Amino acid sequence: MSELPAVAPRGRLADSDLLAAFLRSRVAMLAALATLLIFAAAAFAPLIAPHDPYDLASLSLLDSLTPPAWRAGGTTTYLLGTDDQGRDLLSALLYGTRISLAVGFASVTFAAVLGISLGLVAGYVGGVVDAVIMRIADVQLTFPAILIALLIDGTVRGLLPGLTREESAFGVLVLSIGLSFWVQYARTVRGSTLVEASKEYVLAARLIGLSPVTIMARHILPNVLGPVLVIAAINLALAIITEATLSFLGVGMPPTQPSLGMLIRVGQDYLFSGEWWIIVFPGAMLAILVLSVNLLGDFLRDALNPKLR
């Protein structure tokens, strides 16, 4: 009997239902293109930004509140104008998007690792351990994510008064947002683990003497990651919004390291005085970024849902 020809990974990808569904969805393709462009612009901000917004020595108050280049009084030196400190708004947007994405990715990674670990332990071990973890998750669900982030932010800054805001802002934001989002991962992974733990391959792994940690890491974890990827994609947009909200409220990134939320906060003070560009451009960037990531998350949720195929 002749052997079946091996299918290369590229061929499997080309024939996959996910890629076919992606190519049929114009909304998903546009969202992916917008997300890719924004990610690339943020990643290469030091190379493509015309100015360095972090170099305070290069800022001049004489250049503050300069309008965009196409308006009267504008200049091509500052294509999108400047803010109240004379900072080039285009450069600030690129670097601010970079900070917002970094906080989003780091907090989602932290929340996913914590939630997946607790969900696996709760679903596999069961008993008192499961009850304690799930009751903690139920209690946390009664509080809004913003409130939890504010409480954690205030607690950390109170326990570590010696740290300056510039030194601790990024870590505090990641910890605050990550501890706000772990519950979704834990509940989802726990439910999937309860189903997988009763299957024959897990029972066989127990019979041959594999440790619980090995069974959870090598056998159960790969089979419960599908829903986690969808949650992570959607939570990335939520994490970016949460970071922008905290920065807008004054407990996020410092003014010397402006994120999108901090730029919006600065622009709010000048919205009704005619300097609309300070808030409109950061707000538009945040809206496009969150919308694109959300649309990709919705596409993954529908494409990976077998009930909708």
TrEMBL record:
One of its GO terms (biological process) is transmembrane transport. The keyword Transport applies. Residues 97-297 form the ABC transmembrane type-1 domain. The keyword Membrane applies. It is a multi-pass membrane protein. It comes from the Bacteria. It is found in: Cell membrane. The chain crosses the membrane at residues 27-49, 99-126, 132-156, 168-186, 228-253, 276-300. Its main location: membrane. Keywords: Cell membrane, Membrane, Transmembrane, Transmembrane helix, Transport. One of its GO terms (cellular component) is plasma membrane. Gene3D superfamilies: MetI-like. Belongs to the binding-protein-dependent transport system permease family. This is ABC transporter permease.
